[in-house]
Amino acid sequence: MKFSKILTTILTCAPALIKAASQDYAPQRSGKLPANNRIFWRHDSMVDAGKDNNVDLTGGYDAGDNVKFNFPQASALTLLAWSAVDWKDGYKEAGQWGYMKDLLKWGMDYFIKCHTSKYELYGQVGNGSLDHGAWVPPEEIDYEYPSYKITASAPGSDLAAETSASMVAASMAFRDDDPEYADILLKHGKELYDFAEKYQGTYDKSITDAKGYYRSYSGFNDELVWGAAWLYRATGDKTYKDKVDKIWDTPYGDLDPDKFLGSGGPISWDDKKAAAYALMALTTGESKYVDESTKHSELMVNYKTTPGGLWYDTNLSMWGSNRYASNAAFTVAMLATSMDANDAKRKEYVKFIKKQIDYIIGDNPAKVDYVVGADPSSPKAVHHRGASGSKGADKGPSENVFVLYGALAGGPGANDNFKDARDNYEMNEVALDYNAAFQGLLAFLIQEGYNVPDPKQTWDGAWPPKEPQPDITWDWNLEADEDSYMSGAPKLSTGSGLKCAKWCIDLEVDEKVLYVQNIWGGKITENNGNKFTICNEYDNGYLDGKGTAQHWNFNFKKPNGGKSSDVLPKTAIVYCNGKANGDAYLVRTDGSGAETYGWEAGVCKPAFLCDGSTPAPSTSKKTTAKKTTAKKTTTTKKAEPTSSSCYGYKCCERCEVEYSDDTGSWGVENGDWCGIPDSCNEPPADNEEKHSSGYPYCKSTTEVIYTDDVNWGVENGDWCVIKTSGASCTCWAQAQGYQCCTSTSEVVFTDESGDWGVENGEWCGIKNC
């Protein structure tokens, strides 16, 4: 089977938040995109999210629209993190573990930003009505996107507990590779669960705009159990198991909407009951949890299907049938993970799981691989604004201009029928929660040994996307060429698969021989003397890569007369997909061809996918610029708390600050957060000069043992800060897992950390001098 190939396609675009697709994980990234972004047609968007409340809410995303709905986003990320915890080997075998961590961190960093204080969590960015009234890619949003939050007075237990679950699950996924980041996530997860439990209510009563899109139908009991179950697994703290049992053991009536046991449906972005059954069974092995998970698994395995074999519920599956089939199989797979490999029942479960995945990736009556970009049969018109290259679901070319690699299309109807159309929301919607369980099941099946390598994919459009030839043709198409004026309707066309959803032209005329009287058909967006920028917008400006011409019109005056061949510009700059974010080409207006302008084409698009070059440092590698306790274990600096509690937490024994917020400064000791006491900020009795970190300056040594934001030395068995003069240099890159540049000072890339260079094919930090 092609499980590994499909998983690679899915993780090509790595998430963030809800209703999108898995490959749509990178296409679904909002904010300032990293330089290693693998989706060439996605660019920075919503970079001022949260400005209405003076907070930074950049990052994350939702679906094919442009609202960031955090509730379903958190649900998707919890499932993704869970699969990373228990099916890590599957991701590693597919060569996707690094991308998986990158995916998770993008979402977790966003949630950290959303958790602005202990009892305050932002749960949505964007207004559903405003957004659904506009069909534009996120890079071109020109309407307001307000931010909404839950607080102690306007609670949302379901949202807070689900976000907690996602962060705690992710902390387990990061525990081995980045324990410091894992600790940060666990701290937020504990606080958010406390918030969910202490101030109870459904989030859609506080964030009312969400009610029309992601209403919390199942209440919040399922999320309270789900969140506690994750905290119990991550910490082993029995108090969290007690919280699970408090709801688990309550004898709710069959018609009580808060009833927790006996779920008759699959998990979803709203309903977490069956996920909690499986998680508790996996964590404890206790019979009451295993029995409940087994009962539910039996129901899912023996549920009705389409004639072709896809799990199908008449009420649920009419909108996103592939999603629900994957969700039904996901909890079965998690239970199977805890079972003996030779168990006959386990083998039955794995057979069911494999049947669902086989169906989704092409073994179905429609002969459709529902993963976008995975096969020539894959859907080509999924419901997604950015990929469409159009101004409406029912406008523009019938196929999307851009390929949403890895997105899982909604799926077939009850009779295995499927219609690939952008306005077919029920069958062709895409979303993060559509992909989440499906992606995990691929890792599960790879881990089970079912992956068989595919032959090399050579069909047009296979991943990775290839750089089209600069095949652009210009024809002036003169309609009149008199002594004093000329007019025409210049034709522009592209071939070799070079698609431009819209385009712009930079045209410079010689005012001595030509005067622009009028231009129409394309909009003049810039005019500076004899320089003009002419743009044609979506739909009516689509260049299809097949030679179909688009045109604009002009009237030029010729004050000195002359032939057209003498006075018309010989070249023009054409921007494929707009001037702001498109690729520039120098086009010869005599029809003899074009070449790239200001950039170098590679084999793939972007080039680093194929040429072996190193993309800019990924966010997954630079988790923090702070020094970690693991790197400086010899310190003897002691804190002297004046009470047993610091901000409601245990007081730190040392003064090493890992994180600061409005409450105060925090440290990490024994894997948990502690408050930095006031004594750490008091001047030493001996008036010894100290650095702001609380460590003394070195008295004699100048030997640098370790470098982060300062240079560290060791004196008398303890760490000290080496003072720097104006002429000295500091290197910050080592704290982020990179080497300092030793021979180069050429800046190749700059981010918030500093300047980066390249030595021996690897990124290095350029010292600050």
From TrEMBL:
Residues 1-20 form the signal peptide. Transmembrane segments: none annotated. GO terms for biological process: cellulose catabolic process. The active site is at D420, E429. InterPro entries: 6-hairpin_glycosidase_sf, 6hp_glycosidase-like_sf, CBM10/Dockerin_dom, Dockerin_dom_fun_sf, Glyco_hydro_9, Glyco_hydro_9_Asp/Glu_AS. The keyword Cell cycle does not apply. It catalyses: Endohydrolysis of (1->4)-beta-D-glucosidic linkages in cellulose, lichenin and cereal beta-D-glucans. Residues 615-640 are annotated as: Disordered. Pfam families: CBM_10, Glyco_hydro_9. Residues 641-677, 679-723, 730-767 form the CBM10 domain. Its EC number is 3.2.1.4. GO terms for molecular function: cellulase activity. Keywords: Carbohydrate metabolism, Cellulose degradation, Glycosidase, Hydrolase, Polysaccharide degradation, Repeat, Signal. Belongs to the glycosyl hydrolase 9 (cellulase E) family. This is Endoglucanase.
